[in-house]
Amino acid sequence: MKTFLYLVLLSPALLLAQNEFLTLEKAWEIALRENPSEEVALARLNQAQARYQQARSSYQPTLGLTASGSKVKYSDTTLAQFPAGTSDNAEVYSAGLQATWLLWDNGTRKNSVAYSDYLQQASEASQMDSREQLLAEVGQAFTAAQLARANLRIAEADVEFQNRQLENSIRKEKAGLDSRTDRLNFEIRKLDAESTAVQQEANFVSAMAALSALLGQPIGTELPPPVTLKPEDDSLPKEIPDVDLLWKQARETLPALRQATLQVEAAQSNVAAFRGEYGPDLSLFGNLNAERESDPAFATDDMGNAVGIQLSWDLWTGNARKQRVIEADAQARETEAGYRQVQLQALATIKQTHAEYMASVASETLSAKTFALSEENRDLVEASYQAGRETLLRLNEAQRDFNNAGSRYVASRLQRQLAWIRIQQATGTLRNQVEAPEDK
Fold it and tell me: For residues 212 and 137, what is the distance between their CA atoms, to the nearest angstrom?
């Protein structure tokens, strides 16, 4: 069985160096570096960080500068109040420097900052979740490409087998030891095998195109073929922790759960911030003003200033304040329900992937035995047919069973790999398999 897999599945390795094959780890590294989704997630994180810094700036005083110059034409009523000879128009220049510092606002500012902080952390978790999703999609596409390539090699091996049988049949027919019907059988089988190989080639090209898109490769870039799992490769575990241990790990490491938890905290802080509007605001203010006619050359005599403390309290807002609190409270309940939904879905996914992986282990073991038996059976039937002790129909059946068993064996091996990727995604540990690029 190992000999067959090396010759059929790994035959290109005889022509290419190992570094000319694409490994899953290398595909992950390329995806994190080139896929636009990483840039999108990073941009969203930067937005959340900027909003948090905006909220924190409310603890700092504000400082504003104003300046104006105007030409004023007085009315007759106004001129009557001035001494005789006063011009009926004037140029007026003014400038001012105002500072305001919010000292207390009944917790609105504190809770607004907490709201932005939670959302910033939730955005970080979202970035990690996006990375997990990308790696899982790359793993799925890479596995599909591996399967397509393996099926192509199996189809090509079938072509070689049928061609070998056809050549033997032609020699035997010339020697009068075989009938034309046998020759036609092998010709038909060879054409069918070639047709299957063409289709498998198309499937492989399609799978590589999907993988290339996930890796963010531009049009015209040709990826090396994916490396094929070797028969003795036992890097995947035979057993995995039970559902309870996996769930315990997921609660600590799954980005989607952390994001949902932080969103609940943010929603609760948002409610508290709106409730703070029911209290007064206390601010410290100061200003420096200057005003002068004729020209803007301000002097000390043109200056004035004021310093004070201000209390403002909206006693009635036409029910708008109450409705904002009701809206925020409803959003908080929605977020809490969303968290419970994420939690239930995460647990269900762990149960599903755990069962899928254990089934894939059993399936691989059984398909490996089936493949070994079908290979031995095919070889025995072929030898018996050449010796005239077995029918052509039996040889065709044995070859068909052999091809099907080979396909199922490769598929079960790769299904186990895919199930292992999904287990890691379900527990939020898939990103630990590859070093992420530094955030720009």
Answer: 12
* Spatial separation of the C-alpha atoms in residues 338 and 336, rounded to whole Å: 5
The count of other CB atoms within 10 Å of the CB of residue 392 is 17
Tokens of 41: 């997630």
The pLDDT of 267-273, averaged and rounded, is 97
Q: How far is residue 169's CA from residue 432's CA, in Å, rounded to a whole number? A: 56
2-62+106-279+318-432 belongs to which homologous superfamily?
Outer membrane efflux proteins (OEP) (1.20.1600.10)
Instruction: State the chain's mean pLDDT as an integer.
Output: 88
Would you say 6 and 153 are in contact if contact means Cβ atoms under 8 Å apart? no
DSSP one-letter code for 390: S
Tell me the C-alpha distance between 278 and 396, whole Å: 85
CB atoms within 10 A of CB 195: 12
b/e for 23-39, b at 16 or more Cβ within 10 A? ebebbbbbbbebbebbe
Do the beta carbons of residue 231 and residue 3 sit within 8 Å? no
Long-range contacts of 167-176 (CB under 8 A, 24+ apart): 168/386
Distance in angstroms (rounded) separating the CA atoms of residues 62 and 151:
69
Query: Sign (positive/negative) of CA torsion 384, 388, 393, 399?
Result: positive
- Give residue-wise pLDDT tens across range 137-191: 999 999 999 999 988 998 998 899 888 888 887 887 777 766 778 788 888 888 9
Burial of residue 299 (number of CB atoms within 10 Å: 0-12, 13-18, 19+): exposed
Q: Residue 339: which of 249, 258, 424 has the closest Cα?
A: 258
| Residue 93 or 293, more confident | 93
Spans of all domains in the chain: 2-62+106-279+318-432
The phi and psi torsions of 102 (rounded to 5 degrees) equal: -75, 120
285 closest CA partner among 61, 117, 1, 34: 61
**Across 33-127, where does the E strand assignment appear?**
62-73, 89-104
Helix/strand/coil (H/E/C) assignment for every residue in 257-283 = HHHHHHHHHHHHHHHHHHHHHHCCEEE
- Cα-Cα-Cα-Cα torsion 334, 336, 340, 341, nearest 10 degrees, comes to 20
